[in-house]
């Protein structure tokens, strides 16, 4: 998996009591989705401590190609991709799936 940063200046959410920031990204999946999701480190997004959440966002001109929903797993520190299997039923992508044509726009919240 690779990550693009279509917005170079993240919104300033810090204020007087927090160092939290919101970073807009475009996740580009690969040919072999790992069991449990893609491992993530806070430093990838410029955070010193931790990732709080990953929220799906509208396409920021980076070329989003999918309806997958990103889900951050704080226990394993991974990005899991969830897709709709049938109406009203969602599941994580199967390990080993080829997602090389998939990209997901998201906002990563952390500090």
What does this structure look like?
The chain is mainly beta and 111 residues long. The protein has one domain (2-110). Helices cover 0% and strands 41% of the residues. The protein has no helices and eight strands. It has a four-stranded antiparallel beta sheet with strand order 1-2-8-4, with no helix packed on it. Strands 3, 5, 6 and 7 form a four-stranded antiparallel beta sheet that branches. Strand 5 and strand 6 (78-86) form a beta hairpin. The two termini are 22 Å apart.
Q: Tell me, rounded to a whole number, the average pLDDT.
A: 83
Q: Please state how the strands of the largest beta sheet are arranged side by side.
A: 1-2-8-4
% residues in beta strands: 35-45%
Structural class: mainly beta
How widely separated are the two ends?
22 Å
Write down the domain tally: 1
Q: How large is the radius of gyration?
A: 14 Å
The residue ranges in which pLDDT falls below 50 over 5 or more consecutive positions are none
The helix/strand order is: EEEEEEEE
Q: Report the major sheet.
A: 4 strands, antiparallel
User: How much helix, percentage-wise, in residues?
Assistant: under 10%
């Amino acid at each position: 998996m690779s990550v693009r940063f279509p917005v170079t200046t993240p919104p300033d959410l810090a204020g007087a009591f927090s160092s939290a920031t919101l970073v807009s990204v475009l996740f580009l999946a690969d040919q072999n989705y790992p069991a449990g999701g893609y491992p993530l480190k806070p430093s990838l997004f410029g955070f010193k401590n931790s990732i709080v959440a990953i929220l799906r966002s509208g396409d920021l001109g980076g070329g989003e190609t999918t309806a997958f929903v990103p889900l951050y797993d704080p226990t394993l520190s991974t990005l899991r991709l969830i897709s709709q299997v049938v109406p009203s039923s969602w599941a994580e992508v199967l390990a080993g799936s080829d997602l090389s044509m998939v990209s997901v726009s998201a906002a990563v919240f952390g500090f």
